[in-house]
Amino acid sequence: MTHSSQTTTQSSTKGDAITMPYTYFRGEFVPSAQAQISVQTHAFNYGTGCFEGIRAYVSRSKQKTFILHLLPHLRRFVDSCKILGIGLNIGPEELAKRVVELARRNQNGGDFYIRPLAYKSHTRVGIYYPDQTDDFVVFSVPFGNYLEVERGIRVMVSSFTRIEDNMVPARSKCTGMYINSFLAKAEAARHGYDEAIFLDRSGHVCEGSAENIFIVRDGKLHTPGVSSDILEGVTRQSVIELAGKELGIECVERPLDRSELYIADEVFLCGTGAQISPVVEVDGRKVGPGVPGKLTQQLQTLYFGIVRGDNVAYRAWLTEVPPA
Ligand SMILES: Cc1ncc(COP(=O)(O)O)c(C=O)c1O
To answer: Among 2, 209, 296, 319, which residue's Cβ finds the most Cβ atoms within 10 Å?
Structure first.
């Protein structure tokens, strides 16, 4: 079974800027090159934006494109905006119409990634003004695998601590919070690892820089609970559902110790970007025999089938993109 990326093609490339033809910007669909903001923008200066990462997958026949878990992502987007105090004035269902229309215009027979982003858009210097304005943009980019999904990845526990709920809430997907993720991921890369794992201040496991984490011990899944300074991952929820319904495997949500990563039978990361990525090494120690675990692979097979529309029982997870 291979789960390799369907596409990494791109419709226009200049340096590292990969774009698709249209972007939703200031209330309309404009050619992506026209979607520009001022360098004085509050969000650019202070990290005051909220975003989502949503995947669109092509069917195996390449005839259809499906957006995965559109409404759950947009509901979380609205919640993130509420936490940060960004006025969207539009609910998940209306947002969904715009996202689907962007996907309809940009679809190109390959997989892509859709990013709604709401942000503090005023251009005055200063942290807060009562009359601050907010804006909302949606762009998309061609997207393949974010992390390796077949051979498995090597991870290190980060020397950076996960930011706490009362500092910058991890359940809000706000842009500034990703400084924490960036520092950890860059540190891991410098040390030759594929990904970083955050611990909280008490030493308990939180998540990866952009993924939730699961371990397998004694035939059960274990993952940190939603009060563990994690993003309440949409994929995390899908994994819990699939494990229970399709494989009869219970998932225990509880605090996880660092040392449990060292003795787990299996470890994997999951997320919209990461999909389901087996972890084969943690801090230089092999996970199990050092190859992707059986349960991880079973979950992957189910997941990769569902996202491309192969499994009719899970079609409710997908929104079909209308023809261009
Ligand atoms: C910090 C963090 N945790 C977890 C996830 C996984 O969340 P989801 O499955 O909703 O994409 C992401 C991905 O967006 C993330 O950035």
So the answer is: 296
Residue 210, ligand 1, Cβ within 6 A: yes
Q: Which two tokens stand for residue 146?
A: 């974010």
**Average pLDDT score over residue span 157-179:** 97
**Is 173 in the active site?**
yes
Q: Find the 90 Cα to ligand 1 centroid distance in Å.
A: 23
pLDDT tens readout for residues 216-268: 999 999 999 999 999 999 999 999 999 999 999 999 999 999 999 999 999 99
Q: List domains and CATH numbers for the chain.
A: 12-142 (3.30.470.10), 153-304 (3.20.10.10)
- 295: buried, middle or exposed (CB in 10 Å: 19+, 13-18, 0-12)? buried
Give residue 80 CA to ligand 1 midpoint distance, Å.
13
Inter-residue long-range contacts of 291-294, CB under 8 Å, 24+ positions, other chains counted? 291/152, 292/150, 292/151, 292/152, 292/266, 292/268, 293/216, 293/265, 293/266, 293/267, 293/268, 294/266
**Given this model, what pLDDT does residue 4 score?**
52
Atom of ligand 1 nearest to the CA of 235: 9
